[in-house]
Amino acid sequence: MEQTLVLVKFDGVARGLVGEITSRFEKTGLKIVAAKLTRVSQELAVKHYPADREEFLKGMGNKTLENYAQMGADPVEKLGTDSPLEIGKMIREWLIGYIQEGPVMAYVLEAPHSVELVRKLCGHTLPLIAPPGTIRGDFAFDSSFLANTAKRAIRNMMHASGTVEEAKYEIPLWFKKEEILKYRRTDEEVMVG
Ligand code: ADP
Ligand code: MG
């Protein structure tokens, strides 16, 4: 069994989409083993988006540069730099603000391959590119271009751990051990055997 950290960020909570989103996860066979609606402190925000995770920062920067290239926009003109790391650092500051805009719904979801499964259901980081049928594709339209022009984070409603390693780092930031519960769902036997 694999666990993953999933957040419905404030745009999803504010739009009343928590039920719809939760229902999609549950129906796919993902088991909720921890859940809470919570406000995010500055301390948690900076730990969740750590400054020293260069790979994460560069990843965000590169995704942004790809989106700019597709749209024929010049990153230097729009953001003042075309360095993936520098762009990543800029986005990180916006993200720390975004995650604290209002309450977020946090879960730990469990299933075989839960990390990959949740990422698939959430869809691409940029809602504009996320296919229909995914949460981001069905309920949002934001792009890097729109977000960066307004100097803010992309409103894509979801955070989901990107790798098993990331999940192992993130889950203890959000939940104490005793908040993560063990139980059986009645459909487990049919789905997993
Ligand atoms: P994901 O959430 O799909 O794992 P990342 O970990 O790369 O994506 O990025 C974290 C979050 O940063 C995204 O969910 C999004 O809200 C925000 N973000 C990513 N790229 C940009 C960007 N170019 N401009 C603004 N916000 C961004
Ligand atoms: Mg990520």
Automatic annotation (TrEMBL):
Its EC number is 2.7.4.6. Signal peptide: none annotated. Keywords: Kinase, Transferase. Residues 1-182 form the Nucleoside diphosphate kinase-like domain. Its cofactor is Mg(2+). The keyword GTP-binding does not apply. InterPro entries: NDK-like_dom (IPR034907), NDK-like_dom_sf (IPR036850). SUPFAM superfamilies: Nucleoside diphosphate kinase, NDK. It is an enzyme of class 2 (transferase). It holds the Pfam family NDK. GO terms for molecular function: nucleoside diphosphate kinase activity. Belongs to the NDK family. This is nucleoside-diphosphate kinase. It comes from Candidatus Roizmanbacteria bacterium RIFOXYA1_FULL_41_12. The lineage of its organism: Bacteria, Candidatus Roizmaniibacteriota.
